[in-house]
Amino acid sequence: xxxSATEKFDPSRAAEYAxxxxxxxAGYEACHELAAxxxxxxxxxxxxxxxxxxxxxxxxxxxxxxxxxxxxxxFVAVDPSPPMLALAMEHIAAAALDGRTEVVPGHVAGLPxxxxxxxxxxxxxxxxxxxxxxxxxxxxxxxxxxxxxxxxVVAGNCMAYASEPLLMAAWGRRWRMHGASDExxxxxxxKILHGADxxxxxxxxxxxxxxxxxxxxxxxxxxxxxxxxxxxxx
Length: 234
What we know:
By secondary structure, the chain is α/β, with parallel strands linked by helices. The chain has two domains: 3-160 and 198-232, Rossmann fold (3-Layer(aba) Sandwich), CATH 3.40.50; 162-197, no CATH class. It has helices at residues 3-6, 11-24, 28-42, 61-69, 82-94, 132-143, 165-177, 182-195, 202-212; strands spanning 49-54, 73-79, 101-105, 119-123, 151-157, 218-223, 226-232. Strands 3-2-1-4-5-7-6 form a seven-stranded mixed β-sheet, covered by helices on one side.
């Protein structure tokens, strides 16, 4: 993520992330589990693989899910936010997976291009990257570090929030369902409207992936503004 996006994930944000992400995304666990299942289905059954986890900070849930399903996989966790990366590694170490996980503070662009990964994930990241040019740059940074035909799972918010008032209202009601006051709900709605920059539509995301060298994506999960897709490097 660019520095402007990284600044949002300070230590206070990291501390609340694990709990709040599961409220903000209905089906949080299912999305991560299905992402692992899709990658597993797209790779050689039972074979070793090294997976690039771009934007790994936070819960570490994508690594936990993949590791539970595929005992021979290893992971390279990349994130430019030290507090978020530290939080993820706490969960990964608690699951005794730190021996299978290499931690790389920084950006995907800082990884050697010659290091070819077997698969990659980009979950909950792209809508924090400001604007299509930076989003495309990140996808290209991932693409040039993947083996030909390697699978990628992308997940995140993909619609302009203000364009879907009913979904925004439902999202606010979910926070209220989990104990947020009306004032807190208004604050969260205001924050999401001004704090993220999703691609704008599923087609816009498909166009970004195409420009980065990926095949047309297959959507496998959706929850209000959030969707998840599987694709391959062409």
